[in-house]
Each structure stands twice: as C-alpha cells, then as structure tokens.
Specification:
This protein is an alpha/beta fold. It folds into 2 domains: about 30-65 and about 100-215, Rossmann fold, CATH 3.40.50; about 70-100 and about 220-405, 3-Layer(aba) Sandwich (Rossmann fold), CATH 3.40.50. It has helices at about 35-50, 55-65, 75-85, 100-115, 130-140, 150-155, 160-165, 180-195, 210-220, 220-235, 250-255, 325-335, 345-360, 365-380, 400-405; strands at about 20-25, 25, 75, 85-90, 120-125, 145-150, 170-175, 200, 240-245, 265-275, 290-295, 295-300, 335-345, 385-390. The strands form 4 sheets. Strands 3-4-14-9-10-13 form a 6-stranded mixed β-sheet, sandwiched between helices. β5, α5 (about 130-140) and β6 form a beta-alpha-beta unit. The chain is globular. The structure holds pyridoxal-5'-phosphate. The site of pyridoxal-5'-phosphate has 21 residues, from α5, α11 and α14.
Length: about 400
C-alpha cells in the first residue's frame, strides 16, 4: 500500500483555478442565482485584498500575534525510533491558538469581511474546530457570529459547542438528514442567500463554489511556506514525503502547495476509511466516489447510482464528509498526489502511539495522517524524511476517543 516513487509529475501551482474557478474539469460555481452576484463580489474583493500590501500586513500580523505563527517543525525522534524506518517530522499546527489549522483561514476571511463592510459572520462546523476558530476571531474583531452545526456533531463535540457560546457566538443546531456537516453547510448557504447584504459566509474548508477553494487554500498556504523553509534550515533538504489528512482538504492543500513543483516530494492525502470501504461505512471519496456536484462545485462524491449522497462514517467528525475539495480531485487525477486512507482502528492506534512515543496527543483527524505516515515511514529507509502535517490537537477528542476505545468518561 505504501509506495514511494520519485520523480513525481509536477504541476504549476499558480495555474489554477481559471477565471471560472475550474481546476481542470473540477470546481466551478454551482450556486443559486441569488448568490451569483455575491460570489462575484467576493472574488473581486478577495483578489483586491490579496494584492494589497495593507491587507497582507494585517493578515500576517494577526497570524503572528494572535494565532501564534510560525508553528514548530518538530523532529519526532521517539516515533521514528519506535518504527525503525524513515525520520519523521511533524508540522505542529496543533500548537496554534484554538488548537488547529482552521484559524489561518478564519483570520483571513474575517479580515476580508471587515474590509467589505460586513458585520455579521456565519459559518458551518463539523468537529467544532472551525466554529471555535471563527467565533474567536469574531470576538477579537467585534463581529457577530452565527455557527451552524449538525445535532449529531453537537453531541460528539459538546465541549466545542460550549466554547463557541462562551466566545459570544450563537450556535444553531441542524436536525435535517444525518445531522452532520453536510446539513450544516446547507443551512449556512440558506442563511447566506437570505442575508447576503450584511453577512459573510466563512466557509471552513477548501471547498464550495469559487472563490472559496482558492481563497481558503491561499490562507493556508502559510503552512508549506513555513515548513519548506524549516525543513531546509533543519536538514539541508526537502522532505521525501508530505502526509496530511483530508476532510474538505484545507490543511492538506496548505501543507502541499509549496511542494507541488518539487518532483522528489511525494504528497499523500489521507482520507477516513471508517469501519472499512463499504457503502456508508467510510468517507474515502477516492475509494468509491464518483464525479458529481455537491454544495457548489464539481468533484468526487460518495453517491449511489441515482446520485443520492451516501451516508459517511468516521470516528473523527472533521473528516466525515461526502465530497472532497476540487483542487485535490485535480491533483489526484494528474497523479501529483497519492490518495490513501486510514481506518478508525488505525487512527486510534496512531493516536495512542504518538501520545506514548512523543508526549503529543493529536486530533483524531490528524491521527489519520499520523497512521499513514507511520506506515509509509516503516516502508522506507532511515535516510528518508517524512513530514506529517499535525493539523490539530486532541483535547476536543478525549470523550469520543475514550468511548471508541471502550471506556466512558464522565466529565
Ligand atoms: C477540520 C479539521 C480537519 C479537516 O478539514 P480539512 O479542511 O480537510 O483540513 C482536519 N484536522 C483538524 C484538526 C480539523 O479540525
């Protein structure tokens, strides 16, 4: 399963998306008529902000002084020794304020909303990390925050619900369908259509109609801008592999972006294999997904032969989504990224192993990347270097991890 086969086909990282938001045949703008103007305005405002030195300065200043960037590049000697293969490095996004990479994007989009004169922010959240990041930045910037969250996710991430409310956000539970992320996105879209004049929708991953996949990617690009420089400083060369977990795809695209043109660097995107690759038991879109349109863009989607969206399952709420970001679909089809998955059991094993060997407790989402990174490292010689993007910390997952491992925490 683990393979390493440099040189890898490279892609020009700035060639996509095109003006219509396409990454090859993926992506685009599939949105209701009422949102087309708002999306066009957003694109225009974003492109102007991106090229504005004042906005750049504000964004970088907040990344540094609020979020806590740059994050560490950490040499995981304990884990590497335990496995006896390649040297493992961790990019420590788990050390960021609010506990995950999500804050990079929340800061960027909230600053943009402010610049556009929008005072009301809405967001969807799965594991609750994006909701917490958005609520925090809104509190800091004096913006009103409304967060949509599926009722099932609210139960498995109760701590984050409390956290968001403490931060002054209104959390709206969504009872439709499977009561998870997909339904929360639908509700957020509905709100945005109604309130678009004074409201910005801070979409939480590299997904949705253009310009979201591009914009979210750009705000997370800082991950690989830092890690590439840090790897060169620490080891004198680039990693042989970069491994990241993929829900919608934001931490992975941020972790990969600066390496897309490096033919010696393998890029591994790890999906949630859940209880195994059977209908409704997983969220590995590249293991059974088909081309389709969901929530704004064309990409690989888990659906049945009638186009009904399949139920998904993962021990981690943040990877539990039926579609994958369009840029990932594009790079996968080109052969630039290798898709892989880790099952719930492999994820829990990696979760414990990293805690035991390094004293670092990863988020269950990130544990999928750790699981695959471990497998890959084991198959490689000690002169190879594997960089794992540790997208978040495990604090939020204590109750569900304990439950999955057979004990019940009464907090
Ligand atoms: C939300 C989340 C993810 C999944 O989202 P992506 O957009 O695919 O990065 C992964 N890890 C953590 C810790 C998260 O909070």
């Amino acid at each position: 399963m683990s393979s390493y086969a440099a040189p890898f086909p490279t892609v020009n990282r700035f060639a996509h998306p095109d003006a219509k938001g396409r990454f090859g045949r993926f992506g685009g703008i599939y949105a209701p008529e009422t949102l087309m103007t708002a999306l066009a305005e957003l694109t225009e405002a974003y492109v102007a902000a991106r090229d504005d030195a004042g906005f750049q300065k504000e964004y970088l200043d907040m990344l540094r002084n609020y979020a806590g960037r740059p994050t560490l590049l950490y040499r995981a000697d304990g884990l590497s020794k335990h496995l006896g293969g390649a040297q493992i490095f961790l990019k420590r996004e788990d050390l960021l304020h609010t506990g995950a990479h999500k804050i990079n994007n929340a800061i960027g989009q909230c600053l943009l909303a402010k610049r556009m004169g929008k005072k009301r922010i809405i967001a969807e959240t799965g594991a609750g990390q994006h909701g917490v990041a958005t609520a925090s930045v809104c509190a800091k910037l004096g913006l009103q925050a409304v967060i949509y969250m599926g009722r099932t996710d609210m139960e498995r991430q109760a701590l984050n619900v409390y956290r968001m409310r403490l931060l002054g956000a209104e959390v709206r539970g969504v009872d439709a369908g499977s009561k998870t992320l997909k339904e929360a996105v639908n509700e957020a879209m509905r709100d945005w259509v109604t309130n678009v004049r004074d409201t910005h929708y801070v979409l939480g991953t590299a997904y949705g109609p253009h310009p979201f996949p591009m914009m979210v990617r750009d705000f997370h690009r800082v991950i690989s801008l830092e890690s590439r420089k840090q790897m060169l400083e620490m080891t004198g060369r680039l990693p042989d592999a970069v491994v990241a977990c993929v829900g919608g795809g934001s931490n992975a695209i941020g972790a990969f972006f600066e390496y897309l043109e490096d033919e010696t660097v393998g890029l591994y995107a790890v999906e949630a294999g859940g209880r195994g690759i059977r209908l409704g038991e997983h969220a590995a879109r590249f293991a059974g997904g088909k081309l389709g349109v969901l929530q704004g863009c064309l990409t690989y989607i888990l659906q049945d032969s009638e186009g009904q969206i399949q139920d998904t399952h993962s021990v981690s709420a943040g990877l539990d989504y039926a579609a994958v970001g369009p840029e990932h679909a594009f790079y996968q089809e080109r052969g630039r990224t290798q898709f892989a998955y880790a099952t719930d059991d492999e994820c829990l094993d990696a979760f414990k192993t990293l805690a035991h060997t390094e004293g670092v407790i990863p988020a269950l989402e990130s544990s999928h990347a750790v699981a695959y990174g471990m497998k890959l490292a084991k198959s490689l010689t000690p002169d190879k270097q594997v960089l794992i993007n540790l997208s978040g910390r495990g604090d939020k997952d204590m109750v569900s991890a304990a439950r999955a491992m057979g004990s019940d925490l009464r907090l």
